[in-house]
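Hey, resending since the last one bounced:
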Amino acid sequence: MAQTPRTHPLPPFTEALVLPPLPGDTAGLPMAVVDVAAWRPAAMRTWGYLVLLEDAVTVRILGCLEAGGAFWPCSAPLDARPSGEPLARGLMYTGRDDGEVEARVGGAMEKMALWGPCPGGGQRLHDAAHGIDLGPYGAPDAHLDFRAVTVAGALLAWRLQAENEAEAETRNPAEPEAAPADKKVLDVLLEKPLPDAVDEIVAAGGEGGVAARYAARSLEAAGASDLRAAVAATGADVVRLASTHLWWMRFPPGADPAHRDTLLSVEAALNRIQLVLDGDAPAHDRACDEAGFGALRAWTLQAADVLDGHTRPNPMATFHGVEFARGGEWDVRSRMARACERLRLPFRLEYRYDVDLPSGCVSVEFALPKAQWFPAERMGDGGLEDCRALQGTFVALYGLRLSAVLAACAFGSSVAVTRCVVSAFDGGLGGEAVMGCDFDRLGFSRTGIEALEDDASRPVEDPAALARSLGAKAAMELSDGTLRPVEPLRVPGLGRNRGDLWRDRRPLSEPLSSLVMAETGADLDVYHDDFPAELEEVRSICSEEAETPVMAIMRLEELCDRILGALEDRGGLEGRSPLWSNSSPVRMLMAHAPAGGTRQTGAEGARDPLGITGDHDPQPGRPSRFYQLPDAFFEAKDAISRRYSDLGDFAQAMAVADQCVALAPTSVPPRVRRAVLLGDHGDFAQAEAELKVLLTMLVDTDDTGFCLYRLAFAYWQQGKPALAAAAYVLAARCPRFADQARLELSDLLREESVEEPSVKQAAAALDADGAELPLDGTLLDTLGEAGGRLVDEGFPIAAWRPLKLLADRDNNDDLHSIAHSLRDGTPSAYL
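The structure tokens again:
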């Protein structure tokens, strides 16, 4: 840290908010926020001072926290508010419950990190600037208060200042430095719309320095003139990734291929420019151009570091409260994902991987960048020279280098990994395989790293020679400047655990089995359907008998009996309770099911889930074994309830709706249907109660938005406009229901004498009314533990959905990589 303040006595019984240090902090003393009355400035409201605790009664003051989230560095209590800008600020986005932390670095305010809510309260930081490890401040269970969020901004600023000073001390004074304006040539991308910013960069090339001219030349060659049309058609924008400090174009997955090519070509140019700016400042145009070409291979020097990854702690070893075994599949997969996600590459990395620990093999697939995304010109003795004829060779060389670095990531994930098979694809992961490399650990560690280091300083320009130097068994055919399709490399036994989940009778061990209330992998499948014809029949009956609900009920009841008869004929229902789940994650939450689920077993349990006929014990005990009901049966039951409602028979409609809830206690549709039915009957108080129960079980953001939207309507109909407004505000945070929620909120505010609350006020209002906003951390922990244990036990198909749900909620790229690779594997490598 930049200060060495003197010590101050701490009054007895002073309460202290003890804070963790950033990873790598060398202060060596505990840090805390204390509020001492005698230290408060007369004309400035404060939240206390950040101090280092020398001992129980002595502190060193590091700074003052002004109320509202500003941090002023100081070494003694302040008398008044300092002039100028604070060192750091915690900012909340308008109308939301998240925001950013900015801090002053090098004289300018810079975004240090984003912050958002933690499940169960408090905040956590994410996406730190320059890839700084946030450590405990970024943990999913950080539960920081806003004082800690603001302090984190100051800590990040001090960290960057220290790194900048250390870098300045090691710089060779004889080396020329780029002008500050040149170094910041791309900063306009964060200030203006993407096409305007790129046009400004191109225009500035005529008057700027070496880097500005290089940036303009690179963007023009990459197709900057087509960018405005591509952005207008796709709504694309660009962000700087906190993990790598590189640029990332955001655009819809189904974008027109021509527009996509333009966007990714410009993205590649921006990252090549950024890599040049991050290095030593070139003194002239040709040196800058050579630095740009060097950026196409210098990144391979990361290989030596990732190869040693297994020697470092794994930040994901403890996941949702569970510590997973070192060297297990979760450990290997999470290390692999973290290594790949932190590579600083000149092109975006589209990849997936699979792990087979019994054979010690990791397989990786990645998409090659297109030839036209590489430089088309090169600065020679006589000026710019056309190098488009070499772009195919550039692709091949890049593919070999990336294959080697990905192999280093695999070998760095565990010493148990002794082989890595890497395949490269043209036109995306769904394209044709055009390169394959088979690395063994011993050969790679002996020659691969050294070859990459030699290539970075003395580039190899012949792909075949580079493949030989890397020690890989390579399959590649470069003909007329184009990589031709090759036979993918296959690995026997690699996909052994990737069969249909509904057929997987391998047992689950404890504690996983009890956690998810399942005995085998097949018990967790909710998507396989043996009754597709019956599902179509349900829909046909509802259409054909739209005007005759009594006939529809009769036909649907007969269909339900027929389905249950078919299930009985197959056998295996004895001792198992019927269950319908609308998704895999909610199936895994059966241990947390609220009251109302069936306790009956066998086919009779589906016929009479509430045990009201008297033919069997209505309370046989909590079920622990289940069989999945077909969608056709559940949809038929739901349709029967609706037909009774059409007939005006509310009691019978509710009875069948109660059966649906009993058969699907953790699923959203039956409880929402029951709440709607109550509302249709005018019982909005009971509908409110039903929706509040549902809120405690939600794990999906879309479900949460819809539940809040329905709750808002129930509040409104009961004459509770303030609560209705609060529920609409929170529902509008879900993109799927935002427009409708905002529309109805506008109607509410126009008709009722209430004001629109902030997100924080809305959440507090619902919480005070007993509406427990999702998510209960216990549910998330169950899904996290289940996903991790399923990975360790070799059930990738069962594991990916709960992990993807968590990745979506936390915007966690590492977890997204794990989930997508569990889902897709590496199909080209399977026999």
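DSSP finds 28 helices and 25 strands in the chain.

Sorry for the duplicate.
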